[in-house]
Amino acid sequence: MKIATLILCSLLFTTPALALISRLQPGGYYFGQAPPGSQVFYRDKPLHLTADQHFILGFGRDAELRQQLTLLSPDGQKSELFLQLEPRSYRIQKINGISKRMMEPSAEELVRIQREAALASSARQHFSNLSNFREPFIWPLKGRISGVYGSQRILNGEPRRPHYGIDIAAPQGSPVIAPAGGTVRLAHQGMFFSGKTLIIDHGFGLSSTFLHLSKILVKKGQRVKQGEKIALVGASGRVTGPHLDWRINWFNERLDPALWVPSMSR
Ligand SMILES: [Zn+2]
After folding, report:
1. 33 and 130: one domain?
2. In angstroms, what is the span from residue 70 Cα to ligand 1's centroid?
3. Which of 22, 117, 172, 257 could make an SS bond with 248 (beta carbons 3.0 to 4.6 A apart)?
4. What is the CA(7)–ligand 1 centre distance, in A?
């Protein structure tokens, strides 16, 4: 039994290293590999490991700059790994002309908003062992960047929640393609803020969300490949014009999509 395990381990070590580059900053992510047989804990919870012991960890917008991981070896030894994130600052974005209804939802609408947020959250919490998160991501749409991750928003003069996506302006009906493969986890026909909303699970907690669509071309549970047409750009939900708002999550941590793709060439 022991010999078999050793052989298996040596086979795993001969697998070529993956070209996964970490982005150590708030909104970024860390790709790690644990030694064979060991487990990795983050905030007291075990991280999911791939068959070759890789794992991914995502950092939110306001993540602590010093991050700690605990490694538990098969013989029960614990060791700590510290990651130091680069600080970053965020822009301030002012948007005017948003309707009163969108600025001040009614009590009924607030119930709807909460219900929809719970749907999105549970879709993002779903764990699958798909390995698509390892694909080098591509832009789901090319166009003018009209909003960036993390910006503090001033809507009609009032400070509101930061923006967590990257906004790409494009004409109504422009095709949106899958930035990486995955499984459709949510295809919603009309949320209060985000309109037609699509969530694709890329595996190990990593997901993409596409907001304000005019049409969703895939169904919940469907597998999609990188580059496949999945939706059309629209202006549904709280928007001032047609654009795609693309978000990336690691479970419910909101990451910066711009850190997953090369700079846009058009
Ligand atoms: Zn947006």
Report:
1. no
2. 35
3. 257
4. 50
Q: How far, in Å, is the centroid of ligand 1 from the Cα of 75?
A: 48
264, 154 Cβ separation under 8 angstroms:
no
Residues near 6 by beta carbon (within 8 Å), at least 6 away in sequence: none
Ligand 1 center from residue 247 Cα (angstroms): 9
The residue range of the domain holding 171 is 92-259
Asked if residues 187 and 213 have their Cβ atoms less than 8 Å apart, the reply is no
Domain boundary among 39, 62, 84: 84
Å from CA of 33 to ligand 1 middle: 34
Q: How far is the CA of 211 from the centre of ligand 1 (A)?
A: 8
CA of 262 to the centre of ligand 1 (A): 20
Three-state secondary-structure class, residue 9: helix
- List C-alpha distances in Å: 250 to 61, 111, 253: 12, 26, 5
Q: For 56-108, write each residue's pLDDT tens digit.
A: 999 999 999 999 999 999 999 999 999 999 999 998 888 888 888 778 889 99
- Report d(CA 173, CA 217) in Å as an integer: 12
Report whether 78 contacts 72 (CB < 8 A).
yes
Residues 124 and 161 reside in one and the same domain: yes
Distance CA 133, CA 163 (A): 23
| Same domain for 126 and 234 | yes
For residue 29, the Cα-to-chain-centroid distance in whole angstroms is 10
Say how many residues make up the chain: 266
Strand, coil or helix: what is 130? coil
Give 255 Cα–ligand 1 centroid separation in angstroms.
14
Task: Express each pLDDT in 148-200 by its tens digit.
Answer: 999 998 888 888 889 999 999 999 999 999 999 999 999 999 999 999 999 99
